[in-house]
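hi support,

uploading two proteins for the ticket. first:
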Amino acid sequence: MPRYDVGEVVLVYFPYKNHNGEIQVKTRPGLIYQLDGDRERVIIQITTTNRSDKLPGKWIPKASEIGKKMELLSDSFINVGTLFV
């Protein structure tokens, strides 16, 4: 298993419910938020849809200092309301 550090952006499979209520997965970027030993990871969802009016999180323009450090490809919303372990 590759080693990652807190703060790195990685591609992961995120679950979601489709219009029929079935759980499916999409490959999406995620922010490594916490590492618990060798096996546990807490990942924060990143999306290009600004949901700051509905969900807790932060909108980050890719041209900002933080966006450049994260090497974002697009302006992105860091969705801290949706964590995955």
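and the second one:
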Amino acid sequence: MDDEERAVPAHGTVVLSRVRGGYRDMLRGYDVLIDDTRVGSIRRGKTVRFEVPSGEHRLQLKIAWCSSRPLTVLVEEGGTASFMCAPGGDAADALAAVTVDKDDYITLQQTSEPIVMAKTPMNRGARLSLATAFGVFGGSLMLTVALIWHYTGVAPKADNAVAEVSLVVTLVSVIVFRLRRWKAGRRPRA
């Protein structure tokens, strides 16, 4: 057998980028499946590369019981096939996304070239929205704890103070959120 007969199989590259935007799945990675085999994962704002034999391959992303639609791609010898993925909707669509639309939970599409994920800071409005959401959640949680303390007698001296503070935090967060939505509705559309 000479060197030509023992040639190394031809390979290409699959490049996958995940967008930074949105809040859904911001802390979770998507499993990357090539030809129904898990080859790695991708997190928000990242780009991953996988070397594959040249030829036709099936690419799909999964998270828990939800997934993207599978894509079939032809990877040429020495070539690159580029893809972009993102959550398939926003957090408001969560119930439908994990039930009837579970196969469209993740958006996966082929791109003409790899996408460079630039790190962009969150704007002031997004930071304020995130802070109000945490305020509502945290205040509501502490209010629930204070009620449990009150009815069980676990912390009789602290329950009223915790309840008052958590109620104020919750109400202020709700008011800020409503004012932001009201102001956003009053802005002229461009």
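thanks. also noticed: Helices lie at 94-97, 124-152, 159-186.
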